[in-house]
Amino acid sequence: MSPMFYLYLSAVLFTLGAVGVLLRRNAIVVFMCIELMLNAANLALVTFSRINGNLDGQIIAFFVMVVAAAEVVVGLAVIVAVFRTRRSASVDDVNLLKY
Amino acid sequence: MRLLAAFHAAANPNAIPAPHIEYRAILPMLIVFGVACVGVLVEAFVPRVHRAVTQTVLALAGLVAALVAVVANTGLPRRLVVQSAVAADGPTLFIQGTILALSIGALLLIADRSIGADSDFVAQAADLPGTEQERASVRAGLRQTEVFPLAMFAVAGMMLFPAANDLVLAFVALEVLSLPLYLLAGMARRRRLLSQEAAVKYFLLGAFSSAFFVYGLALVYGYAKSVEYGDIATSLTSSDRGDSLVIVGLALIGISLLFKLSGVPFHWWTPDVYQGAPTPITAFMAAGTKVAAFGALLRVFFVAFGGLAWDWRPVVWGVAIATMVVGAILGVTQTDVKRLLAYSSIAHAGFILTAFAATTRASESSVLFYLVAYGFMNIGAFAIVMLVRDADGEANHLSRWVGLGRRSPLMAGIFALFLLAMAGLPPTSGLWAKVAVFQAAYQGGAGPLVIVGVLASAVTAYYYLRIIVLMFSQEPAVEGPTVVMPGALSAAAIALGVAVTIVLGVVPQTVLDLADKAVPFLR
After folding, report:
1. DSSP element (H, E) containing B124
2. Residue range B450-508, pLDDT digits in tens
3. Are A34 and B275 an interchain contact pair (Cβ–Cβ within 8 Å)?
4. Predicted local distance difference test score (pLDDT) of residue B155
5. Is the N end or the C end of chain B the one with fewer CB atoms within 10 Å?
6. Which residues in A lie closer than 8 A to residue B227 (C-beta atoms)?
7. What is the pLDDT averaged over residues B228-238?
8. Which of chain B's residues have a Cβ under 8 Å away from the Cβ of A63?
9. Quick one: how many helices (H) and strands (E) in chain B?
10. Nearest CA to CA, how far is B107 from chain A (Å)?
């Protein structure tokens, strides 16, 4: 099977994630969409690693995973802090700062 | 040790050779990372009463030591170190020195507890705003001293970001600098809802933009078979892959970088986060992040993707014009001083982008000079914003600033000096910074950008001068805010800002020469 299919799949996943970030209203779901984008990038990295015939891409994917894990720690802390204050995780409700 | 390594190599011919690391060259970053890690341990082992002092001394000592290490490293040859992952060249040292000096200023603001009732930071971030629990924490005199290690991690990330010579390291540095800032943005003591909202917005948009960076990285890796800047530059002429891979990849990476330096149209987070974050953090973020992001932008675009300059230059033109215009025009309508400074920072990003668009050697050095000038005037301006207070904390609404010059001529005068610098008027550093970038842009063939830049400067000058008029020409309101006298630490930060702004305004040549000697980026 041509590795190109995996690239197409990763592009679709990345786009789905980006659309999700822009359209979804729950901060947790937005955050999951961002993780989807990162994982789409991982898929692309691993596929390119196979196409290029070197291991760099696979190593980079590990780096991305570690960073994504750190991002979850920070992100959930921030989102939970807001949720506890407002009893809502909707990004439409965080609207005090504007213009 | 060497014997042991030789034994291992003999026993196992497939052993991975240990990487060669030039510790001296990366010493400044190691110091700051080390101090950040020690700061975490201090949180765990030092009794609560001593923590704030210990952390302040530790962080300041670390920054000063790192600055000394940067200065000591200026004599070293320019080269790629750590398996060519880090570039130890002139711009790296110049930018790292700038970031460290700015961080010292910002750290003085973070550490100062004499302004207001206590510090600008929340007593305990986990307490719900407005609850008895929160009041109890405040009464107990608690203080979230984790702020210091977080800030140090951010500083280390800022130092690594422009020094990184491959995209993976740049990505890791980007996250190391961003993640602590997301948390710090949410830790204001007063107006905690705004602060938490700023943190959420900053985090979601920042994570969104770093996802773009990773995908761009993946595409560039697919094109160049490597993520090292030198290899990418070589592959631009030799790769057998389609150009669309690298162009889309570069666009995605560019989006992420423009987000960090708040270039239009990726600037929407800036005013919200600047307003909501605790003011010392806003000062730190506005100065440090911008310096680091511009350093990385220059290195990525000039070193790795210089061969594509024909493709990206028109886009940079568009972004520069949009950034200057939006920063200038939306700034006029602002009524909150922190938001106004946020739009001013957007406009400044636009001015710097004009020189960047010229893609010459002069544009590199003029950007470096601008970053120094801009960083210090920002630290100083936000430091003064911290001082104007009423019962609820900072009085950020501009209507509250009416007549402040009559009430406290010294502080208002210093603020006016920073505003003049931002407007680019003599006798300040801002004038020479603007002259340098516009000259570089003009000589590099970006004449139209200079015209837009001058017009946008005129508009921004209007809103800076309006504040000066507001402060000095009218009588203060009866119930107006007071200007508290700064403690020793923030007074030092303000003095640092004033000194740099005036010295660079009167004798800019030394630093101009220094910036000129620092460039070009190691290719």
Report:
1. none
2. 999 999 999 999 999 999 998 998 888 777 788 888 889 999 999 999 999 999 999 99
3. no
4. 97
5. N
6. 56, 60
7. 93
8. 168, 171-172
9. 22, 5
10. 22
Task: Quote the tokens at residue B506.
Answer: 């009167």
Q: Is B50 exposed, middle or buried (0-12, 13-18, 19+ CB in 10 A)?
A: exposed
Interface contact flag, A54 B183, Cβ < 8 Å: no
Residues in chain A: 99
| Closest Cα in chain B, distance from residue A82 (Å) | 6
CA angle B86, B90, B96 (to 5 degrees): 70
Average pLDDT in chain B: 91
Suggest the residue from A74, A83, A90 to mutate for an interface test with chain B (most B CBs closer than 10 A).
Answer: A74
What CA–CA distance (Å, rounded) separates A56 from A69? 20
Which chain A residues are Cβ-neighbours of B228 within 8 angstroms? Answer: none
Structure tokens at B213: 């960076």
The residue in chain A having the minimum alpha-carbon distance to the alpha carbon of residue B196 is A82
User: Would you state the pLDDT for residue B278?
Assistant: 93
* Phi, psi torsion values for A70, nearest 5 degrees: -65, -35
Cβ proximity of B5 and B18 under 8 Å: yes
3-class secondary structure, B293: helix
Tell me how many residue pairs between chain A and chain B have CB atoms under 8 A apart: 129
> Closest-CA residue in chain B for A53?
B225
Q: What ipTM was assigned to the predicted interfaces of this complex?
A: 0.95
- Residue in A8, A15, A59, A60 to test binding to B, most B beta-carbons within 10 Å: A60
Name the CA dihedral angle for B306, B309, B313, B319, rounded to a multiple of 10 degrees.
-40
Closest CB to B214 among A51, A64, A74? A64
Structure tokens given for B179: 């993640």
CA B98 remoteness from chain centre:
10
Q: Which of A34, A42, A96 sits opposite B197 (nearest CB)?
A: A96
The partner residues of B164 in beta bridges, in order of sequence, read B86
Residue A34 three-state SS: helix
**Residue B218 CB: number of other CB atoms within 10 A?**
32
- How far away is chain A from the Cα of B469, in angstroms, using its nearest Cα? 24
Q: Measured over all CA atoms, what is the biggest interatomic distance in chain A, rounded to whole angstroms?
A: 52
| Strand-strand pairing, B86-88 and B79-81 | antiparallel
The secondary structure of chain B in percent helix, strand, coil, rounded to multiples of 5, reads: 75, 5, 20
Domain spans in chain A, listed from the N-terminal domain onward: 4-88
Taking an 8 Å cut-off on Cβ atoms, the answer to whether B183 and A77 are in contact is yes
- The yes-or-no verdict on residue A59 having pLDDT over 90 is yes
H helix or E strand, kind and range, residue B153: helix B147-163
CATH of A4-88, one of 3.30.70.2740, 3.30.70.1130, 1.10.287.3510, 3.30.390.50: 1.10.287.3510
Q: What are phi and psi of B268, to 5 degrees?
A: -65, -25
Tell me whether residues B221 and A60 touch, CB distance under 8 A.
Answer: yes
The structure tokens 């030198």 sit at B230
Tokens of residue B8, six digits: 């291992």
